[in-house]
Amino acid sequence: MRYAGASVQKRLNYPLPIPFEWYDTTVGTEGRTVMQAYEKLLEDFFRPISRELVPAVRFKRLKERWEAETVFLSSVSEIAMHPAYQQIIGMGTVAVPLILREIAAKPGQWFWALKSITGENPVTPEYRGNVKEMTKVWLKWGKERGIIY
Amino acid sequence: MAQMGKGAWYYILSRQLIENAFPLLNPTNYQVTSPASPDYNCIAWAARVADLWWWPDNQYIYHWPPGAPREETINAFIEAYSLSGYIICDNPDCEKGFEKIAIFVNTHGKPTHAARQLPSGHWTSKLGEQEDIEHAKLDDIAGQYYGTAAVIMKRPNQAFQ
Questions:
Q1: Cβ neighbours of A29 in B, within 8 Å
Q2: Size of interface A-B (CB pairs under 8 A)
Q3: Structural domain tally of chain B?
Q4: Is there a domain that residue B108 lies in?
Q5: Considering only alpha carbons, which residue of chain B is nearest residue A72?
């Protein structure tokens, strides 16, 4: 499968250290896997997430990395201990509205982060593990505090 | 490609993601059997539950069968499934009158995944928040994500509830 070097440069918005045509010589799923790893390396080098000052952008980049690397996991502790997830927790209260808006749009395993950042857990025991109900409870919690509308 | 529509494009991407993550899977030995859902995980799905996420987390956020130790150990998982009537058995072969599950562990012996056997002898696995798949053999999903199948359990066939 050809890998479009020009579109990679455009998306990452910085000059690539190797010529476009070298990207276009990869074939097959192995080639794509290698190029994706290389692209991630370049992104980490030229646009490190640690230098990202805008919270919403930092959250988005961390979230995307976390999702990509935990997509097939069932273990909640592995999901929550992922470095990108931990960095989101490290963003503190500024991440709370971002997480709440995220779960409003796409429910997911954000409850550990919400509990860690806020120190609260409005979910009652009968709803443990019920992602739909836990999402509703946290969204209600956020609206009552004016964090989201 | 554009004529195939967004749904077909997502289906292709999804299968590529799955086959990249599980190199032993290929189009001839598995099929996707449900859409992605964050509502349940493989541990719940192996127990025929599709509306709860089961995990013995120490934050007490997720569901874990009452009575089973809330620990991320193989013994706790065996106990959790024992509460649903499963007992340990010694092989993954299809046995008439019984349904089987397999618990996977990583290289540290920590549980990572569970799969349930179908009447055909194939297995069904929920891949995290992603789709359920039906795969021919347990080893098809062994590898870096789930490790290997360590314990097989069985119980008399139950009607799906």
A1: 16, 19-20
A2: 86
A3: 1
A4: yes
A5: B128
Question: Nearest CA to CA, how far is B84 from chain A (Å)?
Answer: 18
Question: Which of A2, A32, A69, A74 is the best substitution to test chain B (most B C-beta atoms within 10 A)?
Answer: A74
- How many whole angstroms separate alpha carbon A1 and alpha carbon A24? 8
Q: What dihedral do alpha carbons A124, A128, A133, A137 form, nearest 10°?
A: 40
Chain B positions touching A122 (Cβ under 8 A) are none
Q: Is residue B1 part of a domain?
A: no
Strand order from edge to edge, sheet including B98-105: B30-32, B132-135, B123-126, B111-117, B98-105, B148-156, B87-89
Contact by Cβ (8 Å): B21, A72:
yes
Asked if residue B91 is part of any domain, the answer here is yes
**Between B20, B51, B59, which is nearest A130 by CB?**
B51
Question: B45 near B101, Cβ under 8 Å?
Answer: no
Asked whether residue B78 is domain-assigned, the answer is yes
Q: B126: domain range?
A: 6-160
Q: List the pLDDT tens digit at each of the 149 positions of chain A.
A: 444 555 556 666 656 555 555 555 555 666 766 777 777 788 777 778 877 889 999 999 999 999 999 999 999 999 999 999 999 999 999 999 999 999 999 999 999 999 999 999 999 999 999 999 999 999 999 999 999 88
Query: Tokens 């193989």 identify what position?
Result: B74
